Amino acid sequence: MSDSGSEPTRAADRSAAPARLRNLPTRLLSLAAIHSDRRVNEELARVDARKWHYAVLAALDEAGPASQAELSSRTGIYRSDMVAVLNELTDRGLVDRAPDPADRRRNVVTLTGSGRRQIRKLDGLLADVEDEVLAPLTPPEREQLTRLLAALVYGRGRNG
Amino acid sequence: MSDSGSEPTRAADRSAAPARLRNLPTRLLSLAAIHSDRRVNEELARVDARKWHYAVLAALDEAGPASQAELSSRTGIYRSDMVAVLNELTDRGLVDRAPDPADRRRNVVTLTGSGRRQIRKLDGLLADVEDEVLAPLTPPEREQLTRLLAALVYGRGRNG
DNA sequence: TCTCAATCGTTCGTCTCACTAACGGTTCTG
DNA sequence: CAGAACCGTTAGTGAGACGAACGATTGAGA
Fold this sequence. Notes:
- 2 copies of one chain form a homodimer.
- Chain A is built from 7 helices and 2 strands.
- The longest helix of chain A has 21 residues, at 25-45.
- By secondary structure, chain A is mainly alpha-helical.
- In chain A, strand 1 (95-99) and strand 2 (107-111) form a beta hairpin.
- Chain A has helices spanning 19-22, 25-45, 51-63, 68-75, 79-91, 113-133, 139-154, and strands at residues 95-99, 107-111.
- Chain A has a two-stranded antiparallel sheet.
- Helix content of chain A is 60%, strand content 6%.
- The relative contact order of chain A is 0.10.
- At the A-B interface, helix 1, helix 2, helix 3, helix 4 and helix 6 of A face helix 1, helix 2, helix 3, helix 4 and helix 6 of B.
- Chain A binds a DNA duplex through helix 2 and helix 5.
């Protein structure tokens, strides 16, 4: 146990990367996302949660009970993966999954009381991580970044 | 064959995502990176290349022959994964891998002639993809984004 | 009313990617 | 000369994005 110190410069290859790579937007995007994703997951893991848990809980909190397909489209989680996420959430008692009497193909997923408490906690936790990840930027820069990324993701999210 | 139209809104969930998710920087980063990565890989695949191929070829082109460990630190590719990448590159005749007579632990990796041609091609190809991915942004916005991402990735890459 | 397409939840499987652990061989240092 | 550090390599993990297909159910059209 000594062979582990020379890995590719932990999460920030500030070192001598080729000029062509150093400022390549797609690469920077990738690196930034990896780091950010990792920090988010690490922090959520401390309260036995994952990224998708937050997404589902938030969707339920904001828009009320929904079918799995609806949750899928709201959160961007594939409906095949949604199954496992909901299993985990029900195991933790954060949501309730019951067949929809009105349409027996569907399940109705509902936020429980402890689910509501959990998402408050996650809100705070996540805010801290955001803050840490964006630490190198000033507040206006953070806003700017968010705006630019939104434009990228939503294609034409113009507003001014 | 008909059950495939309702997946989570292809690569741009412009739909009704919860407000808490819609402008969450870490999430936007993730979504943007996924899309950008996919486009890059798709386009590179058309010439039988991958993202890491470009990184290694660029490193060699700019800094000359190097050991695998050095390439690893220059590109951010883990040295365990570097093996496969170099296998692919040598298979395609783009690089040459030979034991270093000066230090028999190392290999010396060298760019071949056709490797030099390949990276010119990839340069052009990649520029096109960058352009497509960043299409929603104006040129100054693209610069701004690059600057912000670099600050994020390199921690304190201030310059003015 | 019967039929067919569509929808929903679910299972299984694939591929990629970042990352770890451990090995055998080599070189460096004390 | 012994032990630490380094190198390339193999193997494996865990997560994430994604696709195919199936049984059950519902809705629309002939």
